[in-house]
Amino acid sequence: MSEVRRSTSSSYRPRSSWIKRPKREWKPLEDRSCTDLPWFLLFTLFLVGMCGICGFTIMTGGAVRLVFGYDSYGNTCGQRNEPIEGVRLSGLDHTDRKFVFFLDPCNIDIIQRKIKSMALCVSQCPTEELATYHDLKRFAMINGSELCSYELPGHKYPQLPERFEKCPKLPVPESKALPVFNRCTPVDISCYAKFAEAVVTFVSDNSMLNRLIAGVAASKEIIVGLCLLALVLSMILMVIIRYISAVLVWILTALVVLGSLGGTSVLWWLYIDYRMTMNETMTKDLRETEEPIDDMKTTKDHAQGLLIYAVSATVFTGILLLLMLFMRKRVALTIALFHVAGKVFIHLPLLALQPFYTFLALSLFWVYWIMVLLFLGTTGNPEKNEDTGLVEFRLTGALQYMTWYHAVGLIWISEFILACQQMTVAGAVVTYYFTRDKTKLPVTPILSSVLRLVRYHLGTVAKGSFIITLVKIPRLILMYIHNQLKGKENACARCMLKTCICCLWCLEKCLNYLNQNAYAATAINSTNFCTSARDAFMILVENALRVATINTVGDFVLFLGKILIVTCTAFAGVLALNYQRDYTEWVLPLIIVCLFAFLVAHCFLSIFEIVVDVLFLCFAIDTKYNNGTPGREFYMDKALMEFVENSRRSMAMEERGRSKRARPKEDVELTEVKAMAPGTSSA
C-alpha cells in the first residue's frame, strides 16, 4: 500500500502546474517562419472580392457610363443605346453626341452631392455665352448641337412654350469639356463660388472668396516653397532631436511643475481675497439692510466654488509632484531612447522616406477606391424617378451590399497599409538593435525588413489591421448616427452616443499601441499575432511606469517639435508673403501652408515615435534576459548602457544606505544582550 501511495503521490501534480505556461525564450532574428497564414488567405480572398466589385461595375456598364456620361433618359453618350422599358426618349443613337450638358449646371444639391438638373448628350459644348433663345437656335443651326430636350426642334426654340422647362437656364455660360469625363463645365468660377459660399459659411461676400482664391493662385510658388521648407525642417528635427532632447525634457518638466504650482497658488490667493472681500461686504450689508439672505447665499456659493477649485488644484499638484519624484529616474530613459533613435536615423536614413512610400500607397489605393465608388454610383438597374420623370441607376437587392463591402475595404486596406509601415519600421529597428557590430548591418535594412514582411508576416499584419477595423467601424457608424440626429435627440441620448464614441476611440488608440508592439515582437521572435501581443503586453505591464513616462514626456516633446515646425514655417510664410506687396490676401495661403506643415511634421515624427517605442521594447527584453555577464551580454547602445549602469549604481547606493541604517539597531541589540549576560549568570 505504501508503494501504491508513493506512486500515486508522485504521479499527482497540482492543478496550477498543469496550466503553467513555459517561459518564453526570446531569440532575436534567429528563426523565421510564416505567421498567421489563415489570415493571409482570408485577406487575399477579401482583395479578390474588392477586385470582383470593380470587374462587376465594368462588365455591367457602370464604368462606361461614368467615363462617357449619360443623359437623364438612360442613354450613354457617344454610343448606340438599347431602349429602356417605360422610358421615352431612351434607346437613342448618340454616336455623334459625346458630351454631357446640364441645363442648369449651377444648381448643386449640397446634401446629395450632385447637380439637380436635366442632363443631355450634345455634340459640342457652348463655346460662348448664350443670352437668348435666338442664340440657342443660332448655335444649334451653325454647330448642329441642340441644347434643349431631344423632342424639341432647334429651329423652333424661340416659339415653343416648353422652352422654359426643357431648355437650359439663361444665360447659358461658356463651357469646356473635362479632359476625360466629357462633361461640359462652366468656365466662369462664379458658379462654383456659390457652392463654396454655401459650404464655407464664414464667407459672406463672393468678392472676398474670389480674392482668396486669387491669392492662392498668385502665391502658388511661395506655397510650394514653404511646403518644401516644412519637409526639410521635419527631416532636420528628427536628426538633431537627439542632441536637444535632454534640454527639452527637463525644461518641459520644470514648466509643468512651475505651472501647476503657480496655478494652485493663484487659486488660493483668489479664494482668500474673495473671502476677505466677502466678509467686509457682508458686515457692511448687515449694517445697512435687514434681509440680505439671497445675496449672502450667492456670495457663499462663489466662495465655495473657488474653494473646490483650489482644493482640486492642490490635489492635482500633489499627485503631479509625487509622480515627478518617482519618475525622475525614468525620464533619463526617455532621453536615452531619444538619443539612440537619432542614431538609428543616421544609420538607417531611408527610414525618413517611409512616410512618402506610405502616403503614395494610400493615395493610389484611395484613388482606386474612389474610382470604383463612382463606378458603383452609375451601376445597377435603370429606375424612373416618378417626381422628375428622369432615369437613375441604382443597385437593388443583394447587390446594394457591395457598397458596404467596398466601405469596409476602405478601412481594412488603409489600416493594412499603415500596419505594413509599422512592421517595416519595427523590423529595421529590431535588426539595428540586435546587431552587436553595427558595421555588419545589412546594406539595406529597410529593404530586408520589407522582404521579411512580404515573405513571412503579411498574415500577422492582416489580422492586426482587421482588429482595428472591427473597432473603427462601430465608431464611424455611431458618429454618422450622431450627425444625422443632431438637434433631434434628447440630452441623454446625445450623452450616451458621445460616451460610446469616446470609449471606442480610446479602445482604438490602445489597440493601435498594442498592435505596434505586437508587430515589433513578431519582428523579433517570428511568432503569430496573438502570441506576440501577449508577450509584448506582459513586457509593457512589467515596465508600466517606464511606458507611462515615455508616452507622456516623449509624446509631448514630439508635439512641441510639431508646433516648432509649424511656427517656423508660418513665420517664414509671413515674411515671404508680406514681402510680395501684390499679395493683399495671404491668409488662406498661410493656412494651407500651416496645415501642410503640421501634416508633414506629424508624418515624420510619428515614424520617430514608432522607432522610440520599438527601441523601448527591445531595451526591456534586453534587460530582462541579459545581465552583461559573459554569454549574456547586452545588445544595447552605449547611451542605454550608461543609463543601466547609473541605475545599478543608484540601486547599490540605496542598498548600502539601508544596510547602514540597519547596522546600528543590531549593535544596540548585541550590547543589550551582553549587558544582560552577567546578571543572568549570577542569578
TrEMBL record:
Please list every transmembrane segment annotated in the UniProt record, as residue ranges. 37-58, 222-241, 247-272, 306-326, 332-352, 359-377, 410-434, 556-580, 586-619
| Subcellular location, principal | membrane
Query: What is this protein's function?
Result: Choline transporter.
**Which keywords describe this protein according to UniProt?**
Membrane, Transmembrane, Transmembrane helix
Under the cellular component aspect of Gene Ontology, which terms does the record hold?
A: plasma membrane
Q: Which family does it belong to?
A: Belongs to the CTL (choline transporter-like) family.
Q: How does it sit in the membrane?
A: Multi-pass membrane protein
MF annotations from Gene Ontology: transmembrane transporter activity
Q: Where in the cell is it found?
A: Cell membrane; Membrane
**Record's Pfam families?**
Choline_transpo
Q: Where is this region: Disordered?
A: 651-683
What name has this protein been given in UniProt?
A: Choline transporter-like protein
